[in-house]
Specification:
The protein is of the alpha+beta class. It folds into 2 domains: 160 residues, FAD/NAD(P)-binding domain (3-Layer(bba) Sandwich); 132 residues, D-Amino Acid Oxidase, Chain A, domain 2, CATH 3.30.9.
């Protein structure tokens, strides 16, 4: 069989693309290939479950637009399919007067992005989160939480009901061409498709290169480690509590997230993973490690953020240091109140210049589209990314190769 569309990657973005392709082209033959034995095994299944409003992202960027629209479409999807979710809102707080200017800048960015954000006083912060230490805050009412594993499985179910062929335990080994068709060599045999969509997450850059496309960026894996509040301390957090992010450091800082199952996670830190799918400190892959160590962009990034990087490493190995950072938000948290829980690995694209790709990155090739940077808020934005990619496919079929760098 020759498929019309083959999607590589069974995370939330790949399955959204497959589902949306089936909706847009109901007669098309669609294939999804996932190397793991289950859907949502990596980034999708290990994220914080937050439905992001889009307050952090550069106005006009795809992250800003997709998360704003996605925070609505994701809630509607969850409502339609009875998937656990809650629009609980979140507070972003300044813990001292020195953070007030950054908090104000974030508030203005939220307004620029057209979001329902509100300045709140220290007393009003306490109304939302009684145990938080803050001098001021922002209330972002459209933020929520959801069970993204269930969302992902529903996408897969819908795609399959539309007629798509979904293959688990199927790893892409090589890509080739047979005329205008893509030949996809896997451990389960060869597949042929007229168009390929690469949504391979942590391996998206490698799949792109198999397709003779250079995304001009390399995936660098950052492990985010979490602690969880013990059940008798969950009352310390009612919803979502975030610090004001450091604009010079590309991650949001440790925060508290009430999950959809009622548990409360604290974190994450952000440390280099020594393996692309390295979820523990001891996970190591020589090839993955050597690839990072020989990439000039990594060393440029490390030099720029050396101090922050050292602090993240300290928090990784010292529970006391991690808890101290949590106490900056909730002073009552003690060492005995938190226990380690799951970690996630963020697939972050990094350019050779040392600049992190801070927006979604899509690279178009010959009868192919490669989604080469889709970390958070990709889960929130998955329906919108699916729509965008399918529209790109409709526009790109038959065109010569070109690159669309969706970067802020």
């Amino acid at each position: 069989m020759i498929y019309d569309y083959a999607v590589v990657g069974g995370g939330i973005v790949g399955l959204s693309v497959a589902m949306t392709l089936g909706q847009r082209f109901p007669d098309a033959k669609i294939l999804v290939l996932e190397k793991e034995s289950e859907w949502a095994h990596h980034q999708t299944g290990n994220n914080s479950g937050v439905i992001h409003a889009g307050v952090y992202y550069k106005p006009g960027s795809f992250k800003a637009k997709f998360s704003r629209a996605g925070s609505r479409s994701m809630v509607e999807f969850c409502q339609q399919h009875n998937i656990p979710h809650e629009v609980c809102g979140k507070v972003i707080v300044a813990v001292d007067d020195g953070e007030r200017p950054r908090l104000e800048n974030l508030y203005q960015r939220g307004l620029e992005n057209g979001l329902p954000v509100h300045r709140i006083t220290a007393e009003e912060v306490k109304e939302h989160e009684p145990y938080v230490k803050a001098v001021a805050g922002i209330w972002v009412e459209s933020t929520g939480i959801a069970d993204y594993r269930q969302v992902c499985h529903k996408y897969a179910e819908i795609a399959q009901n539309q007629g798509a062929d979904l293959w688990l335990n199927t790893k892409v080994l090589r890509l080739g061409n047979a005329g205008r068709e893509q030949v996809i060599q896997t451990n389960q045999g060869d597949f042929t498709a007229r168009f390929l969509v690469n949504c391979a997450g942590l391996f998206s850059d490698r799949i792109a290169k198999l397709g003779q496309v250079d995304p001009q960026a390399k995936i660098i894996p950052f492990r985010g480690e979490y602690y969880e509040l013990v059940p008798e301390k969950r009352h310390l957090v009612k919803g979502l509590i975030y610090p004001v992010p450091n604009p010079d450091f590309p991650f949001l800082g440790v925060h508290f997230t009430r999950m959809i199952d009622g548990s409360v996670h604290a974190g994450p830190n952000a440390v280099l993973s020594l393996k692309r799918e390295g979820y523990t400190k001891t996970d190591f892959d020589l090839g993955d490690f050597a690839e990072v160590m020989t990439y000039p962009g990594f060393w440029k990034l490390a030099a720029k953020h050396a101090d922050e990087g050292i602090q993240e490493i300290i928090r990784s190995f010292s529970k006391a240091a991690f808890v101290k950072s949590l106490q900056g938000l909730i002073p009552e948290v003690q060492m005995a109140d938190v226990v380690p829980t799951h970690a996630g690995v963020r697939a972050q694209a990094l350019m050779n210049t040392g600049q992190l790709v801070d927006d979604f990155l899509i690279v178009e090739g010959e009868n192919a589209i490669h989604v080469c940077n889709a970390p958070s808020p990709a889960a929130t934005s998955s329906l919108e990314i699916g729509k965008f990619v399918v529209e790109k496919i409709a526009q790109s079929v038959g065109k010569s190769p070109r690159t669309a760098a969706i970067a802020g």
